[in-house]
Amino acid sequence: MLPSKSQIEEIVDGALAEDLSMGDVTTEALITSDQQGIGFIMAKEGGILAGIGVAEQVFHRVDPELKLEVLVEDAARVKSGTKVAKVSGRITSILKSERVALNFLQHLSGIASDTSRYVERVEGLPVCIMDTRKTTPGLRLLEKYAVMVGGGKNHRMNLGDGILIKDNHLETLRSQGLNIKEIVAKAKQNAPRRLPVEIEVRTVSEALEAAEAEVDIIMLDNMNLEDMRKAVESIHGRALIEASGGITLDNVRVVAETGVDYISIGALTHSARALDIHLRLETRSFSQQ
Predict the structure, then answer these.
(1) Alpha-carbon distance 14 to 213, whole Å?
(2) Residue 201: phi, psi to the nearest 5?
(3) Given Cys at both, which of 75, 213, 252, 274 links 106, Cβ 3.0 to 4.6 Å?
(4) What is the pLDDT of residue 284?
(5) 15 and 84 in one domain?
(6) Cα–Cα distance measured from residue 247 to residue 202, given in angstroms and rounded to the nearest whole number
(7) CB burial class (10 A; 0-12, 13-18, 19+) of residue 79?
(8) Range of the domain at 208
(9) The pLDDT of residue 255
(10) How far is CA 19 from CA 12, 37, 94, 161, in A?
(11) Dihedral angle, C-alpha 73, 76, 80, 84, nearest 10 °
(12) What would the pLDDT profile of 252-287 be if each residue is shown by its tens digit?
């Protein structure tokens, strides 16, 4: 789901403060505040649109009198030349809003487009493409929304959203003499409420030990395909299985074919290339009444 209006406004206000804290000296020096115009936001390449509602909030936060007509909704597939929105009102306000609005729209559409490519690669297989917490600070809600627009699923939203025992947890507790079974039991016992417990493993033997500990989810971290298949066979349905690490568009399908339930990909958010989108301004004369 798209974050709430108040959540979007908080993120947008931070971005606008970054860009407009000292005003727009170029626009203010050259264009009078009474001149009106129309701008069309257009895709310059194909992809999946995400973030049009965020872009709309940018325009409205800069100038509540700006009117934005959404021509294409989030999750729609666009191609080069597709007009996705029309904004009209004061040219000064449109220009002050343009970069921030496009930054959000391009970035989120890039994430949705990349996610869609991964989802398409595993079509027909019973596996979910998931994101991670490798997100841009301050933009996690929006980036994870964009993953969902692209057809993916969200992993943990934050550290309180689930128990994930990672390598550094294991290292710390193993130094105290605990094994995987004891670590999982400790997590289940001390969790503030009943949350799924996931553990990260790197070998087939660790995966088997985790399954015997009755963990809910086992993450196979950076395993090669042969070991991944062996781990899936060893776990034999006793836990859900997630593959993570080194996943690309080239290998995602063969990873899915090993029988894992989830594939988590940090690159969906930390390395997505922005979709090329621009704003073309059309002006007309206007005289104040």
Answers:
(1) 45
(2) -130, 160
(3) 274
(4) 61
(5) yes
(6) 15
(7) exposed
(8) 162-265
(9) 98
(10) 11, 22, 14, 33
(11) 0
(12) 999 999 999 999 999 999 999 999 999 999 876 444
Lookup: tokens for 162: 């689930």
- Which residues are identified as catalytic? 99, 134, 166, 200, 221
pLDDT band at 289 (very low <50, low <70, confident <90, very high): very low
Are residues 113 and 176 both part of a single domain?
no
b (16+ CB within 10 A) / e for 153-163:
ebbbeeeeebb
If phi > 0 it is left, if psi is from -120 to 50 it is alpha, else beta; for residue 256 that is: alpha
pLDDT over 60 at 234, yes or no: yes
Phi/psi of residue 215, each to 5°? Answer: -70, 155
Q: Are residues 28 and 56 located together in one domain of the fold?
A: yes
What is the rounded average pLDDT for all residues in the chain? Answer: 95
- Report which residue type is found at 151: G
Residue 178 located in a structural domain: yes
Q: Both 202 and 99 in a single domain?
A: no
CATH number at residue 238: 3.20.20.70
Q: What pTM, to 2 d.p., does this model score?
A: 0.94
